[in-house]
Write a structure and sequence with these properties.
This protein is mainly α and 163 residues long. The chain has one domain: Sufe protein. Chain: A. A two-stranded antiparallel ribbon has the order 1-2. Helix 2 packs across helix 4, helix 3 crosses helix 4 and helix 4 runs parallel beside helix 8. The chain starts with a helix and ends with a helix.
């Protein structure tokens, strides 16, 4: 059953306020996401919201859906591409599963377009705040952890390349 439009609209509109409280863009994006999820009363609605977020991911070009771009440690197939532009990392990603694209969409909102140092300096507190590890299957939690490690690895590599 889809999430009621009013909850989805409230969650989507929650964003702006959190960004004004924190100077680090990554932390601000995490705070915004946690605030959005607070509008949902139960995990079924949160799961549906994750699925809805994943459905909005832009398609990746077929030439990027190659083994070199696959994230290891995910049960489903996840392709992740990072590019640096103007001192910021931009990510594209997709998956062949139902909930995983929603997790990807969350990660892209938090980390894409951010400075590598901010990515490395900001722990992924949203995982605990949203209680993701308690509500995701062990394999999805492992996949989320693998994606977070890949993002940090991309950020570290970008900083090393800049030196």
């Amino acid at each position: 059953m889809p999430v009621s439009p009013s909850k989805t609209v409230q969650a989507a509109q929650a964003g702006g306020a959190a960004g004004n409280r924190v100077s680090n863009e990554v932390q601000a994006a995490q705070d915004e996401l946690v605030e959005e999820f607070s509008f949902f009363d139960n995990w079924m609605d949160r799961y549906q919201y994750l699925i809805d977020l994943g459905r909005r991911l832009p398609a990746m070009p077929a030439e990027e859906l190659v083994d070199a771009n696959k994230i290891k440690g995910c049960q489903s197939q996840v392709w992740f591409v990072a590019e640096q532009q103007d001192g910021r990392l931009n990510f594209r990603a997709t998956s062949d599963a139902a909930i995983v694209p929603g997790l990807i969409a969350m990660l892209l909102r938090i980390y894409s377009g951010r400075r590598p140092q901010d990515i490395l300096d900001t722990p992924p507190d949203f995982v605990a705040a949203l209680e993701l590890e308690q509500h995701l299957s062990p394999t999805r939690s492992n996949g989320l952890s693998s994606m977070l490690q890949a993002i940090r690895r991309f950020a570290s590599q970008a900083l090393q390349a800049a030196r």
